[in-house]
Amino acid sequence: MTLTPSTPPAATSGNAGPAGAAPGPSRTVPDRPVRRGGRRRLATVLAWAAALPFAAWAVLRLGGVDAGFRWAQLVAFTPYVAAASGVAAPAVLALRRWAALAVAVAAAVALGSAVLPRAIADGTWGPAPDGPVVRVLTANLLMGQASAAGVVERVRLARADVLAVQELTPGAVERLEEAGLGRLLPYRKVLARDGVGGSGVYARFPVEASGPAIDFGGFGQLRAWVRVPEAPAVEVVSVHPCAPARPDREPCWKAGLEALPRPGDPGDPRDTADTVRILAGDFNATLDHRPVRDLLDAGYRDAADATGRGLTPTWPELGPWVEFTPGVTLDRVLADADVAVRRFETYRLEGADHRMTFAELQLPD
């Protein structure tokens, strides 16, 4: 009988020792490099996620890109985005992603350079003319519902010479008269309409129409000459373009702002080289909107910006927006560059969703 040697069983453990030796314990390959690689990738993703949104915002804002009605709404909040970008840069630094850090810092610097000057007064606040002082007040009446007595009281306290009114309804005209506005500002030109489309100019000095109202989308922006004694001809526009609340409203918003007169524009035959223009009211736009910056480039100065009050919010003060909307600066007074700005204030008006704005201006002689 032939005997066949049996085949030894195959080793089942991961590490077989030398022949005849007992098998050694199994070993696990360390996963530390994999973990480190995952953490590095996560840090990179987080760094770019923190940097790129601010960079995109800076490009759109500084490039004056027309990105549609949604951007027209969002760009109003640029001051808040600029503040947040200053927090994002240190966060990216902590992640030690240098390319992302460079982008984050560049975005923060760009946005800061666009926003911070508004909090710094111009120093002289303009030229030093010897002409008369004119105090301009604005009031958005929220479809005529704001307190007429509150308007009259603020006119009295501010010693306003000119009042530019928006959302002026026929009923509001009557209530303002009953509250005594005519005794303080006896001259007026009004374009009263139901709803939000009316406007008007009241003044201490004689007033006459300077041309047809600027009217897009049912929002009338009344133009008037105010005959200030010992001063050049003064044209005041009660500004209120439609709000870019929907895609179909953006065209009338842009048209209403672009149609505002520029310093030196030929117009009424009474225009002269010395004509002073004042744009006052609810612009439905901030200094971050391209149409307003175009007005500044054309030769206007913003009274709030000139006095270091350019970040003072004026809306919302009332209504459902108050609970979740950060304040933005929609109401303003613009004047020719040769008009000195002596003072700027905002005031709350009972029953209104916008703050009143006030500017003390000194005209050239």
TrEMBL record:
Residues 137-354 form the Endonuclease/exonuclease/phosphatase domain. Residues 9-28 have a biased composition (Low complexity). Residues 1-36 are annotated as: Disordered. Keywords: Endonuclease, Exonuclease, Hydrolase, Membrane, Nuclease, Transmembrane, Transmembrane helix. One of its GO terms (molecular function) is endonuclease activity. This is Endonuclease/exonuclease/phosphatase family protein. The chain crosses the membrane at residues 42-60, 72-93, 100-121.
